[in-house]
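@channel sequence for tomorrow's demo:
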Amino acid sequence: MYSFNVMIMLLRIGTIVLFCAAVSYLAVLRKEWRWRALLFAGCYALIFGIIYLGDVWNLPPTLLFFLFCVWKSCTGSGLKRVTVGLMLASMMFAWNALFDNWAAGYLPSGMGTLSRMFRSLAVLGIYLGIRRFRPERDFELAPSLWRLLLMLCIPPMGIVSSLVLLNPRYNMDRGIFREYMLMNVVLLLVALLSFVGLFWAMLVLNRQQKLEQENALAAYNKRYYEDMEQQQFEIRRLRHDLANHLQVLLSLPAQEKDGYIQKMIENPALEKAAVCSGDATVNAVLSVKAGMMRQRGIALSAKVDIPGELPFEKPDICALFANALDNAAEGCLMLEDEKREVVLTARSAKGVLAVEVSNPCLRKDADTRGRFGGLPGTTKPDAPRHGYGLRSIQQIVKKYGGDMEIQQEEERFCLFCYLREKTL
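structure tokens (generated this afternoon):
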């Protein structure tokens, strides 16, 4: 008897662990053990709570407790946490109501163990389904899309709540109970299957939003590269016309020559090009960004070891270096002139490009890290129109099977990433 009770306890624990893992595929869990223990308690109440039609005492407190556990134990937007919590709660309540009322009407007494096994099998199926089709880690939707999903969660939750809270036939004659059982079963099955539709809608919306973001970032990177190419064309054109400028100087009166020469000196095209690598795109970006930082009083220290042309698409290389240097320069502008410094280190070897850009910053937060999610927001006032830099770098890194890490320690911000050459 003791070993049987231990087996039942282990079965319950395993069931709750599987359900917590399913929750973690939809919302990122906090790392602290106390929040995970709270989620464990919420999942236990949701899975093993008895739901009888007409019983008004179990469902409301269980729903509120589970939503509270998801809210406190997970990260992300509030709309995301509430939506995920309602999706899972409506599904489990529908299943529990189906099984508990069916078991109450048809199973003989003493079949509690079978009831627990059916609950565990249901949770196992939910876990395997969510794991098979789960979205990417740290996925997030726009607030308007989360509001749409939240509204779609109301009908199945409303069906279950109405059947449980408004059904007066719980302790009535069993014949009357069975008379309405078919209708109740159909409605609960609709609520149960609604989770599949909601989960699928979440995946479709996530893919659509991701596709739109990729298209926007691709257009952004292409425009960035075209602007850089245009600047380089202007530089080449001006240098080509240098002979014409010299002829103009010879024909100008002496009092006008100094002004003409000064304008030519101030032209960015006549600044010294930063030819420090074997890749023309990297050299072009460094030339332009070095001139920009010089005008803003920012010291740029570049250590670049790239012996030849990089095996990556030129717009991607341009966007990676340009965005990283732009972000670093933006962070320096909030500091005093003597603290403005950007350090770039880049190395290419055996088809792998590693880039590190660091700069001092104002914030004195605790150590913060980002890895394919949780990116720091833009400091510009019109945030919706900005903040593409780090997302663009993140997308490029993922495109080439690399990794990206952001660190902020002791008032210094550091971005590190690497890319791998694609092989057939």
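heads up for whoever presents: The first helix runs from residue 2 to 26.
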